[in-house]
Amino acid sequence: MALKMHSAVQIVGACMLWTSVSSIRYLPNWNSLDTRPIPSWYDDVKIGMYIHWGVFSVPSTYYGEWFWYEWQTSKYKECVQFMNKNYKPDFTYADFAPQLTAEFFDPNQWADLFKAAGVGYTAFVAKHHEGFCNWPSKYSFNWNSMDVGPKRDLLGDLAAAIRARTNIRFGIYHSLFEWYNPLYLEDKMNNYTTQKFVESKVMPEMYEVVNKYKPEYIFSDGDWEADDTYWNSTEFIAWLYNDSPVKDTVVTNDRWGNNSRCIHGGVYACDDKMNPGHLIKRKWENAMTIDKQWAGFRRNAPLSDYLTIEELLAILAETVSCGGNILINIGITHDGLIVPIFEERLRQMGAWLDVNGESIYATRPWSNQNDTLTSGVWYTSKKQGSGLSVYAIIQNWPTGQTLTLGAPVTTSNTVVSLLGYPNTFRWLPASPVGGIVIQMPYIPVSRMPCQWAWVFKFQNLAN
Ligand SMILES: *[C@@H]1O[C@H](CO)[C@@H](O)[C@H](O)[C@H]1NC(C)=O
Ligand SMILES: *[C@@H]1O[C@H](CO)[C@@H](O)[C@H](O)[C@H]1NC(C)=O
Ligand SMILES: *[C@@H]1O[C@H](CO)[C@@H](O)[C@H](O)[C@H]1NC(C)=O
Ligand SMILES: *[C@@H]1O[C@H](CO)[C@@H](O)[C@H](O)[C@H]1NC(C)=O
């Protein structure tokens, strides 16, 4: 079991550096690993950038990043017809890899865009279920971005740009299983009584990627066909927490075997697009996508498949209000571009956060998550000075001259303001026991603080 330790203090000149040096040794079992606190940076930054890029970015169509499997195994007709119509009969999935050309990949431009979007960490696909490594892995022969396709260390180049230009924490997505890896299929045939694939591929590559690139976030996935003992998950995580170069700051998730999801590990990611609509005490993550269908870029996705900024901000507000982080996915093209629809959503979100970030970053769930009377209102809170500030993120601008909310309980000192707007608002208690009626002033469109999802701030409430 882990013991709680005090921080060590180093005195350097006039500055005191608090380092969370600890002699905690986690044991390779969930009882021990589950006691590790989630490093605090994660709960403060709230928003992550999820980035899907791989050989699937070449067909870039039906079923997104799942194209290979849905073509070869499910034999879905969209994929089969697409291949029959456009490729020679002997064309294999591996033949797509040379077309992952990445000639427009500009990691500096990506880093600047992510910074403008206001995200605090990344989950860049290091390897998806297809097994293609986006870094030159010693354990991947001819199925990685240095040997074929880009001829470039995509992961390393992005990590370097992000670290050089931003404070964003670089992190990765990594799939444990590989659909068609012969070693994996052999272990599977043996009902996972052998671990050839884990011993010769997964574990070596995971130690390699952590030692070489020091990701501070690891979104594990592709776990669900076998349990944690097959994957050697607890041994790996114990190393990650005890001895790895990122042991003090790394955050991971719960997808480490068919018996760990939503039960063990770091942050609960549970199922994709987790968004429970109520408070969850354990830190959790909504891994979602701007393309409502798939994470891999799809050339033939219609506009209606993309979330609007209003929809994206509503999901952001709901997620943060309920104690979650949001991991927002964009899909990259085969030539390395972030297309304008994704760029627009990210810049819109960043512009919104420039005004309203106070209601998101470093906030904590309030006593209420949504309002009791008015729908589409999500609350967050933050200690400021000796008091608590409460934020109501509203999706719809009131149509009348007042806005009535049920959850806030006022005091005679309650102050109501709108983030990004200079004046405070007049208000009345809605009833003797609680609620508030806010008098909406006349605000010209040109003086509105933002175009979508406005945030009321309450100070000196009774709750
Ligand atoms: C795996 O399990 C199946 C079903 O229980 C069984 O039929 C098969 O013989 C097992 N294979 C091995 C290699 O143990
Ligand atoms: C997997 O875990 C077992 C049991 O703890 C250990 O003996 C083995 O060395 C581990 N293998 C790898 C590749 O980490
Ligand atoms: C979990 O994986 C193990 C193999 O490691 C397998 O025997 C078991 O059936 C799986 N359980 C579920 C619920 O899929
Ligand atoms: C608040 O959320 C709960 C749970 O999702 C829901 O049942 C309720 O209708 C919501 N309240 C309003 C006013 O929308």
UniProtKB/TrEMBL annotation:
It is an enzyme of class 3 (hydrolase). Its EC number is 3.2.1.51. The keyword Nucleus does not apply. Keywords: Glycoprotein, Glycosidase, Hydrolase, Signal. GO terms for biological process: fucose metabolic process; glycoside catabolic process. InterPro entries: FUC_metazoa-typ, Fucosidase_C, GH, Glyco_hydro_29, Glyco_hydro_29_N, Glyco_hydro_b. It comes from the Eukaryota. Residues 1-23 form the signal peptide. Residues 369-458 form the Alpha-L-fucosidase C-terminal domain. It catalyses: a neolactoside IV(2)-alpha-Fuc-nLc4Cer(d18:1(4E)) + H2O = a neolactoside nLc4Cer(d18:1(4E)) + L-fucose; a neolactoside IV(2)-alpha-Fuc-nLc4Cer(d18:0) + H2O = a neolactoside nLc4Cer(d18:0) + L-fucose. It holds the Pfam family Fucosidase_C. Residues 22-358 form the Glycoside hydrolase family 29 N-terminal domain. One of its GO terms (cellular component) is lysosome. SUPFAM superfamilies: (Trans)glycosidases. GO terms for molecular function: alpha-L-fucosidase activity. Homotetramer. Belongs to the glycosyl hydrolase 29 family. Alpha-L-fucosidase is responsible for hydrolyzing the alpha-1,6-linked fucose joined to the reducing-end N-acetylglucosamine of the carbohydrate moieties of glycoproteins. This is alpha-L-fucosidase. It comes from Potamilus streckersoni.
